[in-house]
Amino acid sequence: MDEKAPPGRLPERERPWVMRTYAGHSSATASNALFRRNLAKGQTGLSVAFDLPTQTGYDPDHELAAGEVGRVGVPVAHLGDMRALFEGIPLAEMNTSMTINAPAMWLLALYGTVGAEQGAELARCAGTTQNDIIKEYLSRGTYIFPPAASLRLTADVIAYTLREMPRWNPVNICSYHLQEAGATPVQEVGFALATAVAVLDAVRDAGQVPAERMGDVVARISFFVNSGVRFVEEIAKMRAFGALWDEITRERYGVTDPKQRRFRYGVQVNSLGLTEAQPENNIQRIVLEMLGVTLSRDARARAVQLPAWNEALGLPRPWDQQWSLRMQQVLAYESDLLEYPDLFAGSHVMTALVDGIVTGARAELDKVLEMGGVVAAVETGYLKSALVGSLAERRRRLEVGTDVVVGVNRFTETEPSPLTAAGAEAIEQVDPAVEAAAVASVREWRSGRDGAAVDAALDRLRADAATTANLMPATLACVRAEVTTGEWAGALRQVLGEYRAPTGLAGATTGVGGGSGLAAVRERVAITARELGSGRLRLLVGKPGLDGHSNGAEQIAVRARDAGFEVIYQGIRLTAGQIVAAAVEEDVDLVGLSVLSGSHLDAVPAVLDGLRAAGRGDLPVVVGGIIPPGDAETLRAAGVARVFTPKDFALTDIIDDLVTVVRSANGL
């Protein structure tokens, strides 16, 4: 560092945070090649995206996996896939983050086994399993088991890693997805800390960890947060997070070592805030959001992964991910950010912002604890309803123009973008043959095993699940017996049961959006219902396949209900057959399908075919999701009445168009 540098600089320039890109698709072999390329470009950690069948505990040949294999991440169905995923990557030297929740125990067992096969000492392996199941009930939807059973699995993983993998972060408490689901900064902090309390209470009460080691447990709890474009507010949010975490771990759990109480977090900046319209604007959004978690030294992220500019269009290409990595590298290595102490110490503005978030978040946390904790708040629907209501209010501000999104609701005039001139070539394309190859692979894997060893391992897993035993030893035995992901999860489903989370619609505030146009749409709905001779128009909102991102579907459902529709919404993860059966049984006037995972070309035709087979080919179907223009044309040619994408942000206009679809389908 320059000896003549002005006073106030740090004695030595700080080391940068861990730099990651969230990556994985198609197959373990293809993802391995992508990982190697990213590491060669200067990425300092891996962040593994698993596909939806893996995340929800299904093998590639399961009915619900159809169309989903390898689309939003890499399929890992067994030990052989995990070996291929990390071929030639020394796990003892790597810091690996795995975005996996319900089957986190299973994927950690696979990862640890591959590490041991490479000769790595488990005690040296560093990384993170996300393993926060609570937010899955509220946002992402990749849960399997009921909340209490899921917390038991999390506690088992924590106890295991404390003994065997002390450098591993066994859980990553996620506020990221809460913000995507509508949370205000106060709700994001309060609800995430309520989850952290539930996890720590579960560990303490399970009796697997001595009381004197709770400080070691706290020291390995990490957080995964979202950073939005209001970056000053985001800085305050992170400082508030740190202050409250220090308070909770000191007062509730008696942790006396300040280092163990340190708030440790990684970040992905706001992917759902990226826009399909004028996608080049996403570059500056990503940079500003990165600043929100890096500018404040006292609340700086320990790891950062940035989305790519074109994620609102589809799957990013390697070049797009490289661009996002270079943003981090320019900030860390070209700027002087890492040469100074905290830039906001003593700021009256920042102190006031932080104090406001701390006060509000503490009140939210206390409210959840008074309800009996976060599990009760999930099961009663309180948390989901609060998020649906907050997101509805956020959408209202967008629609009336209080909140400005450049290129979407203001400054919409634009020149053609050279970035998207290539059309479909502007995003990564997943070869349809990937799914067939994965199906063949898992069947070949099953045929080459010792069937008796598989049965014995699964019997042990079921037996242990029926007790309070730690399930990690039985899970490791399943890995060694070459059990598959679907078999492991299926055995636990038999004992622990499955769960369907509340949709949050019943408790969501109505009538908060739509502006003056909603009254006119409500009148059109009423007139159309009278002309059809029905009491009310009936809309079925369906989520086919394994896509659990339900925020958009829920907002459509709320606004349609406000406009006078009777809405039937049964939640996420439905087969085409279930959606068709509901449409026929409920005698609906319109079916709306929401698909954000890229499986629309498989999921939507399956519903259309099912309706025709059921004698309801006349029933209009509309689709919403991240759907490229070429795919939209294909869906319309197949019989879809309308295709809505993220650029269609005005919910009342969408509902008005739905009325037009119903009228047209009925010759009105």
From TrEMBL:
Cofactor: adenosylcob(III)alamin
Similarity section: Belongs to the methylmalonyl-CoA mutase family.
InterPro entries, sorted: Acid_CoA_mut_C, Cbl-dep_enz_cat, Cobalamin-bd, Cobalamin-bd_sf, MeMalonylCoA_mutase_a/b_cat, MMCoA_mutase_a_cat
NCBIfam families noted in UniProt: acid_CoA_mut_C, acid_CoA_mut_N
Key words of the record: Cobalamin, Cobalt, Isomerase, Metal-binding
Organism encoding this protein: Micromonospora rubida
Cited CDD domains: MM_CoA_mut_B12_BD (cd02071)
Domain B12-binding: 536-665
Protein name: Protein meaA
Subunit relationships: Heterodimer of an alpha and a beta chain.
Phylogenetic placement of the source organism: Bacteria, Bacillati, Actinomycetota, Actinomycetes, Micromonosporales
